[in-house]
Amino acid sequence: GESVGLHLPTLSVQEGDNSIINCAYSNSASDYFIWYKQESGKGPQFIIDIRSNMDKRQGQRVTVLLNKTVKHLSLQIAATQPGDSAVYFCAATSGSRLTFGEGTQLTVNP
Amino acid sequence: KAGVTQTPRYLIKTRGQQVTLSCSPISGHRSVSWYQQTPGQGLQFLFEYFSETQRNKGNFPGRFSGRQFSNSRSEMNVSTLELGDSALYLCASSPTGLYGYTFGSGTRLTVV
Fold it and tell me: Are A76 and A19 within 8 A, CB to CB?
């Protein structure tokens, strides 16, 4: 079945640095990918998405890169701020079902 | 516009009881899906409803069920609660179930 994994469970960066969070997926039929941010006590919050016909998409301070050849996507956060501290999940679709990775805890040190 | 509303936010139940959780999707969204989040298993898909029909189902026992009403509001029910059912239950609404998923804040269920 589908599985989605992240390479690192935790990531610690200095305020102002760029952060990169990675994710690998297994289902080559997945055609839509999403990054979510989850803060303690809250539900996942949409950050950015990308369809399989694209390899890069940019938002405000965030960029998602998709490499379908190796089934890998990454989230880049520019100029990381303390408010970016949270758990980040990638998710891939299979029909109307989202399969989530395990999450990376991002800690931003002042 | 209003987001996804889940009620109640917190719930404490005893083993063997049953529980019903509610989710009101974003206006105009016809798909509602449910997820269970636990520290050990992460976010696991329970089921998805679209236009009052269950369209997709995850690998959970039959004790977990749901339904969707004509106004797209959804409920999920867990019968004969077990300690392992303690989790954060999240619902997500989407216009069609194929993109644009927005999550609610979840219902924290504790089974004692």
Answer: yes
Q: pLDDT tens-digit profile of B25-55? A: 999 999 999 999 999 889 999 999 999 999 9
Q: In chain A, what residues touch B102 (CB-CB under 8 Å)? A: 46
B-chain residues within 8 Å CB-CB of A32?
98-99
User: Quick one: pLDDT at residue A94?
Assistant: 82
Distance from CA of B91 to the nearest CA of A (A): 9
The verdict on B54 touching A (C-beta cutoff 8 Å) is no
Taking chain A (110 residues) in runs of 10, the rounded mean pLDDT of each run is 72 96 90 95 95 96 96 96 96 90 93
Q: Which residues of B68-81 are buried (b: 16+ CB within 10 A; e: fewer)?
A: beeebebbbebeeb
CB pairs under 8 A between A and B: 57
The residues pairing with B54 across neighbouring beta strands, listed in sequence order, are: B49
In the predicted model, what is the mean pLDDT of residues B74-99? 96
Structure token pair of residue B99: 């993109």
**Whether residue B56 has pLDDT greater than 90:** yes
- Contact check, Cβ <8 Å, A100/B58: no
Q: If you average pLDDT over every residue of chain B, what do you get?
A: 96
What spatial distance separates the first Cα and last Cα of chain A, rounded to whole Å?
41
Sign of CA dihedral A72, B56, B99, B107: negative
Cα separation, A64 vs A74, whole angstroms? 6
Query: Cis bond leading into B8, ω under 30°?
Result: yes
Total count of residues recorded for chain B: 112
Lookup result for tokens 């940019």: A58
